Amino acid sequence: MAARNAQIRDWINTGKHVILTDYEHATSDPSASNSGDFEEVDTESVSDDSSSIVSSTASTTSAPLVEKLLASDDDALIPKQAEVDLVFRKGKYLWSHLVTSAGSLPAASLSAGLNDPSIVLKDVPALPEALPRRGMLVGRAFWHVPGISTDRDNDDQNEDFDLQYLHGARKHFHLSYPTPVECRVSPQVAIGNNKASTAPGDRPYPPGLLLLTLCWSYIFSVRFWELQGKQVIYTSHALQPRPNRNIRNRRGRISIHLGASISQDLVRWLCALLAPKPGWSVQGGGYAPWTAFCSGGVEFAIISDEAITFTPNSQAPSSDEAVELLIELGCLYGLDSAQRGDGKHDPLSPIVAGFVAVLALPFYRAMELQPQFLAPTLQLNLTEIRLDLIRQYVADLRYYMTLSMHPMSVGSIIWSIFWQPDVECNLVSPWLSSTLSVLRPLIDSGNLDILIKAFALRRPRVALWWLGIFLLGSPMIPGLIVRYLETSEERWGYATMGSPDTTVSSWTGSPQSFLDEGTSRAYVDLNESVSKADLLRCRYNLRLQDTSSALLAWQPFGVAPKTMIEPGLWPWLEHRFKRTYEHWVWYIKKGDIVARQDVQQGFRKDTGRFVEAVTDCLNVIHLDGMAERSTNANLEPSREATLRMINYCMEDMAGDRDTEVLIIPGAKTHPWLKGWRGLEG
After folding, report:
1. Between the chain's N and C termini, which has fewer beta carbons within 10 Å?
2. What does the pLDDT look like over 54-78, one tens digit per residue?
3. Taking Cα atoms as reference points, which of 27, 471, 31 lies closest to residue 292?
4. Are 638 and 628 within 8 A, CB to CB?
């Protein structure tokens, strides 16, 4: 029903009745409305097509005709050719610089800092210590917006009015899924399979990534179930360990030799993790967002020097016990978690790689992607590894879980890798086109190892999520990137998961939108013109619970006379201010009633830890005399962003729509607005 409603909204927005037969598989996740009680309704699975001001009407089997951006030197919406060319040159210069720098890094390394996943945790709230056993978990942000006196004759403001605290939009979190994530072994993986690499040692693919991912999948899942008061057991699907004498090598079988010094608990654990069907499960059924198993591609055989057996339904390790088993495994095969480089780059630790890959598993689930791994190649290599880092990751799991288990939040993060703060809405097309012109050769050649390094140099806090997505290996990922850079949507027939999220940007410390900035200045004079960016920032700050449409990332262009703006907004326009994030509130339900609220201050306040020195590369310093023109940028990204800007300009601070506040000459007959129903509201 949700998908059908989304399709109807798409018809209303576009006026084109195109049947999209695969809408049942849409997995978009917009935040729910804040009105009414906290119903346990999966509002987050509703397609976000209503928020797309320009909806795609293509089926998934054929693309529509692609219109190109044609500049104009005398138009209220269409950018000038000089502006288009300048943005194209800036984008090409910046991404060329990033790719060149990425190519200078050692093959198995990333820029310094990516071995510390906590860089993404600035103010991320922890999950509650006690979770409901079923249904949905609901929470929302608490914001501080400075209160402004509306009494111009009274300079002495009431002390209680100096601060204004507002709730933000709610987020819904799935607590259980009917199936686990199914992985497979395949030679076709997204990263580490560079066509230009010849020697395995030259590739950055971490050894034993499949096994380490399954280990972390178990730890995440069991820790999550422990928060729900559930217990984990082994199942009848678990493998039985075999002695050396009973194994004959054959095609399609991978034998993992564990040696003589391994504990029996680790043998049993690995037999459950590598089973072709889930070898472990929770009592009562259901699966956590991170639960995964490896079903195909190869058959695993666990080789032990001792005869070990165990029966189904026996107690499986707790999360703390599993951590100790992971440490034992790391020491057994020399999987160091604390490798360090020369200060400019760090080798990619296999244990960190597995951890980061598991963070991306719920996103894969939402996108219906299948994780794929190269066959594990492990050799016994007894080594001491740092234990404190692994245990620290586990101590912080409740923070990582909050962000990881919400796919729309992850989507807002990863697609912000291409966002540029100073690019205006009508210039999005040349910016994305210039980016694709640099990255496409890497994608076409399969050189995603350089691509992830360029991402890490561009925005490290964002790139860590891309690293996890690449490590999970789906060959579909490059196509999603190309599609996004061509159209600003990553899949045909689906709403984008890349809409910005101001809550998530505050959680991570990584901006995604012009809304993450404060107003640029105060507009005191009645005869002044107000920047539309500042106008929309002020309106947004007074409508933080509104989720009727997706937010706008790109910089709005143009100005509006102050006299044409609703007077109720003037006091805020006359003061320069910025919205700030305060904390997060979980609403814990018992039955149909909210039994309690759990306030979470966030990682930085709770732990006193946060890596501040993480720098984004967002500025273009110089262009070295580049004179290349943009000649092949698609129209749709600029048109989509511009119409979304217009849509927001038409809504006043109360949410009422009025075309008179649009203030764009000739808007109703403009070619970019042809077929758009937004002006009729």
Report:
1. N
2. 333 333 344 557 899 999 998 989 9
3. 471
4. no
- Per residue in 652-662, pLDDT (tens digit) is 888 888 776 66
Q: Give residue 248's pLDDT.
A: 67
Tokens describing residue 326: 């992971």
The Cα 37–Cα 592 span in angstroms is 9
The residue with greater pLDDT, 343 or 551, is 551
Do the beta carbons of residue 643 and residue 672 sit within 8 Å?
yes
Residue of 167, 143, 12 lying closest to 546 (CA atoms): 167
User: Phi, psi at residue 2, to the nearest 5°?
Assistant: -65, -45
> Are the CB atoms for 418 and 432 separated by under 8 Å?
yes
The secondary structure of residue 202, as a DSSP letter, is G
Q: Which of 73, 187, 52 is nearest to 497 (CA)?
A: 52
Report which residue type is found at 566.
E
Answer for the pair 279, 237: CB distance below 8 angstroms, yes or no: yes
Q: Is-contact 477 428, C-beta < 8 A?
A: no
Q: Identify which of 253, 276, 292, 221 has the alpha carbon closest to the alpha carbon of residue 473.
A: 292
All residues at 6 or more sequence positions from 88 whose CB lies less than 8 Å from its CB, including other chains: 430, 431, 433, 434, 628, 629, 630, 633
Number of helices (H) and strands (E), helices first, in the chain?
A: 19, 15
3-state helix, strand and coil shares in percent for the chain, rounded to the nearest 5? 40, 15, 50
Measured between alpha carbons, how far is residue 490 from residues 72, 339, 445 in Å?
28, 35, 20
* 178 pLDDT above the threshold of 70: yes
Do residues 30 and 72 make contact, with C-beta atoms less than 8 angstroms apart?
no
Instruction: Find tokens 């040696």 and name the residue.
Output: 259
Percent of the chain with pLDDT over 70: 83
Name residue, tokens 């990137």. 481
State pLDDT tens for residues 412-436. 999 999 999 999 999 999 999 999 9
Question: Which residue ranges make up each domain of the chain?
Answer: 119-172+516-607, 181-193+205-403
**Which DSSP string corresponds to 478-493?**
HHHHHHHHHHS-SSTT
Residue 248 structure tokens: 């004959």
Q: Confidence class of residue 297 from pLDDT cuts 50, 70 and 90? A: confident
For tokens 């030259």, name the residue. 202
Half-sphere exposure of 44 (CA within 13 A, CB side): 23
Higher pLDDT, 430 or 548: 430
DSSP E strands: which ranges in 235-381? 253-257, 280-282, 292-296, 299-303, 345-347, 372-373
Query: Exposed (0-12), middle (13-18) or buried (19+): which is 417, by Cβ within 10 Å?
Result: buried
Going from the C-alpha of 558 to that of each of 75, 92, 411, 531, 642, the distances in angstroms are: 12, 25, 29, 6, 11
Instruction: Identify the bridge partners of residue 181 per DSSP, sorted by sequence position.
Output: 292
Q: Model confidence over 258-267: pLDDT tens digits?
A: 877 889 999 9
Q: What is the pLDDT of residue 44?
A: 44
Name residues whose C-beta falls within 8 Å of residue 520's C-beta, 6 or more positions apart in sequence: 531, 533, 534, 576
φ and ψ of 176, to 5 deg: -160, 150
Q: Give the closest residue to 220 by CA, choosing from 117, 119, 340, 141.
A: 117
For residue 509, the Cα-to-chain-centroid distance in whole angstroms is: 14
